[in-house]
């Protein structure tokens, strides 16, 4: 009886992992606490809805187009706003991105209202659910878990195992030296922020058929996602992915054995981790 809740917790964990992954990329490589991440997740879902409703462009092209469009807004944000805070305390970046999140959410609420808009999954992922033996899982939710795993693993491999990732990490440690080797560090920083934003938008497209597309969908998740990032370790790519999926499962188990604590269990774990290991489970002091 409890296994379906655990599997559904894994689906939530997929979104936690993807959103915390984008946050970890931005913080780890740019040193910016991006509180607008939830709003950018919501923008990804809305762009997918607008592509379908206004342009007749379906789900599969939206998986590519929506992250590119929202990622471009991230380029503008970094170039004209966030870059001005370089070298200042983290608090300034947090306040700026928090304000941007409020503005973005307010604009979408004014245009589309607060009620949710439906977004149907693609025909290929509808129909008879998959029989897992102990439950029937809709094909689309299975696809979400698989897609989140693939994207998370690919992002980790790029940052940790490639020449590009090594250059990005070196630029965070000693930007003048990396620039002396002919690397355009400001452009790299801008594109890295855009990539983190695009990851949030991709998660938004994946979430659109599961949750109703509404302006509050990002703010409902972002606090939990920040807790996931803190538990995994700020800036830790691997920590964000592992912790995101693990905490989704923990949340699912809690709904089975003690439903009243399901909404707070992640924050209790965060408090315990911060007391025992302030840098997070995978983070560095």
Record the SSE blueprint.
Blueprint: H1 3-30, H2 37-55, H3 59-80, H4 90-112, E1 130-131, E2 136-137, H5 139-161, H6 163-173, H7 175-180, H8 185-207, H9 219-232, H10 237-257, H11 265-276
Structural class category: mainly alpha
Strands side by side in the biggest sheet: 1-2
Helix and strand run = HHHHEEHHHHHHH
Mean pLDDT: 88
End-to-end distance: 42 Å
Shape field: globular
Q: Low-confidence stretches at least 5 residues in length (pLDDT < 50)?
A: none
Number of helices: 11
What summary fits the major beta sheet? 2 strands, antiparallel
Sheet-strand content, in percent, reads: under 5%
Helix content: over 70%
Radius of gyration, taken over Cα atoms and rounded to an integer in Å: 19 Å
- According to DSSP, the number of beta strands is 2
Describe this structure in words.
It is a single chain. The protein is mainly α. Helix content is 71%, strand content 1%. It contains 11 helices and 2 strands; from the N terminus they run H-H-H-H-E-E-H-H-H-H-H-H-H. It has a two-stranded antiparallel sheet. A hairpin with a 4-residue loop joins strand 1 and strand 2. The radius of gyration is 19 Å and the shape is globular. The termini are far apart. The relative contact order is 0.22.
């Amino acid at each position: 009886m409890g296994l379906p809740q655990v599997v559904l917790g894994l689906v939530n964990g997929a979104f936690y992992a993807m959103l915390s992954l984008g946050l970890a990329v931005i913080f780890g490589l740019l040193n910016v606490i991006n509180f607008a991440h939830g709003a950018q997740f919501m923008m990804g879902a809305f762009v997918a809805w607008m592509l379908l409703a206004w342009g007749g462009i379906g789900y599969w092209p939206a998986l590519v187009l929506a992250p590119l469009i929202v990622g471009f807004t991230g380029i503008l944000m970094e170039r004209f706003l966030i870059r001005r805070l370089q070298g200042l305390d983290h608090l300034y970046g947090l306040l700026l991105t928090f304000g941007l999140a409020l503005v973005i959410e307010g604009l979408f609420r004014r245009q589309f209202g607060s009620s949710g808009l439906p977004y149907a999954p693609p025909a290929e992922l509808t129909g008879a659910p998959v029989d897992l033996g102990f439950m029937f899982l809709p094909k689309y939710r299975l696809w979400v878990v698989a897609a989140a795993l693939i994207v998370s693993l690919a992002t980790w491999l790029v940052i940790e195992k490639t020449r590009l990732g090594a250059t990005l990490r070196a630029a965070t440690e000693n930007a003048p030296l990396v620039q002396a080797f002919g690397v355009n560090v400001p452009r790299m920083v801008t594109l890295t922020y855009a990539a983190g934003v695009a990851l949030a938008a991709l998660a938004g497209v994946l979430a659109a058929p599961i949750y109703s597309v509404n302006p509050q969908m990002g703010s409902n998740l972002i606090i939990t996602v920040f807790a996931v990032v803190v538990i995994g370790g700020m800036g830790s790519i691997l920590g964000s992915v592992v912790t995101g999926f693990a905490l989704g499962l923990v949340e699912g188990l809690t709904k089975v054995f003690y439903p009243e604590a399901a909404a707070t269990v992640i924050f209790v774990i965060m408090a315990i981790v911060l007391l025992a290991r302030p840098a997070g489970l995978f983070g560095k002091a």
